[in-house]
Amino acid sequence: MRGRPIMVLVVLALSCLGVTTAGASGEPPPSGRYRVQGPSDPRERSAVAATGAVIDQVEAASVVVTAGEAEVEAIRRLGYTVTTVQGPPSREASPFDFPVADSGYHNYAETIAEIDRIVAAHPTIARRSGYGTSAEGRALVVVKISDNVGTDENEPEVLFTHHQHAREHLSVEMALYILHLLTDGYGVDRRITSLVNSREIWVMPDLNPDGGEYDISGGSYRYWRKNRQPNAGSAYVGTDLNRNWAYRWGCCGGSSGLTSSGSYRGPAPESAPEVRAVANWVRRRVVGGVQQIRAAIDWHSYGEYVLWPYGFTYADTAPGMTRDDRDALAALGANMASTNGYAARQSSDLYIADGAIDDWMWGTYKIFVYTFEMYPITASPGFYPPDEQIRPQTARNREAVLRLLEYADCVYRIIGRQSAYCGVTRTP
Ligand code: 0X9
Ligand code: CA
Ligand code: CA
Ligand code: CA
Ligand code: CA
Ligand code: ZN
Prior knowledge:
Blueprint: H1 4-16, H2 22-25, E1 32-37, H3 42-49, E2 54-59, E3 62-67, H4 69-77, E4 81-84, H5 108-121, E5 126-133, E6 139-145, E7 157-162, H6 170-184, H7 190-198, E8 200-204, H8 209-216, H9 273-284, E9 286-287, E10 290-291, E11 293-301, E12 305-308, H10 323-340, E13 343-346, H11 357-365, E14 368-374, H12 390-395, H13 398-407, H14 418-421
Bound molecules: N~2~-sulfamoyl-L-arginine (0X9), calcium ion (CA) (4 copies) and zinc ion (ZN).
Residues 146-148, 153, 155, 200 line the site of one calcium ion (CA).
């Protein structure tokens, strides 16, 4: 009881100054964007990330972060200089939607409508189904592309996952691009026709619909990253989906246990319904004891990277990853990066992250999985490229997507080891 009136006065005074606090508005203080001058190697960057700040961009001797006040103070205590970074130029707002100038982006309803148009136009090779529900009750949707789309055939399966992070809207546009590429190209382009006939391709266009809608609904972009699941006993909302996967969850200082952090890992692995739903779906792709998904890309922005696992350790090889595994992952990563101009790296070359989807898919199932960080490289426009960039920056990944599909039957072929790992199984 003592001190309570003073707290109220402080809150009122801060409100008058335009400073939001948890007590005054019901919303915790928002995070800001900062340049951190100094960190120049994976260990120094991981120390910055371990404060709970989210690293958005990596440069030779600096990083750009999204961070709250306490995280900024912790970064300063590491001895680094912290300065603020400008947001995107303000664009005319459109309530609960992208700004008018960015209307070419698809909000959740528009994404579903576009998927339904694609499926309706190509019913023999495209099919939509649901795999669960988000924290706020939105339908989670997966689209299958293949010949005989209604039949589970014995064909290599490939999974594309998009939009774990709310503000990374370009990744949803990448999903729609892939769906158009494979359906509009079918029967027109021989290479695409043969890939659709010989693969089963799954696209999950929006793993985090609640976060995406929240990010665009405030009249200006919010830089939101997590989902919108309430946290018990905390005013801070949301779990970082890409720290919530059930492989070495929270193992290694690459995520936060604080609800205030942008990289909050959640109270338990798969505590986020959006993660749980994808994980259950992937587990159901084990048929006759064999995981059917052979290759995957998890789409993010920004930085222009092709990243391969692991992210939880600096080591190149680790339990479950042999030298041949690492070499095949790196070779296909470099091959794809040579087509889009991205930089190919092991994830932990940027900074340590644990509980990420790529580590889970490789660590659990040996799925050849990559994280793609799309356009741009720099903080401006960062997460919010103008919608004029949608077409060029999605088409830029056309060849990389097709190469992943081509190698999906045996990725070890890229290092000449197909006879060792993908020997033909004889039928009696
Ligand atoms: O930190 C992430 O989750 C991804 N970067 S982002 O800026 N889009 O948030 C990178 C994840 C790479 N994979 C692993 N580190 N395992
Ligand atoms: Ca525009
Ligand atoms: Ca739109
Ligand atoms: Ca088929
Ligand atoms: Ca199958
Ligand atoms: Zn991301």
